[in-house]
Amino acid sequence: MIVDILKQNKDSWDKVAHHFNGIDALPSFGPFTQSEEELNLFGHPTNQKVLDIGCGSGHSLLYMAEKGASELWGVDLSETQIEQAKETLKDFAAQLYCAPMEQDIGLPKVYFDTVYSIYAIGWTTDLKSTFELIYSYLKPGGNFIFSWDHPLYVHLKSQDGQIFLDGSYQDEGSITYARFKGEEAPVTIPKRKMNTYINELIKAGFTIECVIESDVSTNFDSIKEEVSDRYYSLYKARRFPTTLIIKAKKMNELTGVHLNNFS
């Protein structure tokens, strides 16, 4: 079943990838969400080895390259996305792989300073294995940062400006959509509660540094709000966070403390 979902999602992402060229990429964490310039979660990535999970068109890696990262690595399910990422990163030496994030494809272990995922981690069909793999890729003291739809956001519907809860947040599982980005491209997206993400991080060995239910970016302060029933809208974002952002750290496995406590 998981293999079937991965193949379906891969085929559909290959078809719709052109809609996402440069979208949902650093310094943005998601729709209307505070940016890296506002949150400063990555600090100074100069000389860091970084791995992008769900690297898409490569624009987040380009951002990291321009911030001085020493090595750029990326994984994405879509061949079309990987080809676009190669074009985006043509002036840099980037290691890019077309593969599911759930699978061990031989990426180096205990190697990366930072692993991150911008609006991609929620696609995984196996959250436990994905977080365990990410933990294995990181050096002790390394950071894992990801953003995704706020888990309650999928249940928020808007009608004539009235926002209400639709369906059950308590029920986890998956949702299949027959069309994606207006095209005949069926996708299946897992539906998880916030505590599932947090608890699986803890089980994988991570220490949670911060959990952010993002405010609207100050970049939108001057934009007049209009009532909108669209899935993502400034109207909704000013009333409920579109995006969940979590920063976690891999502890020093020998001492159980952060390495940077002694730096």
From TrEMBL:
This is Class I SAM-dependent methyltransferase. Its EC number is 2.1.1.-. It is an enzyme of class 2 (transferase). The keyword Transferase applies. Keywords: Methyltransferase, Transferase. It comes from the Bacteria.
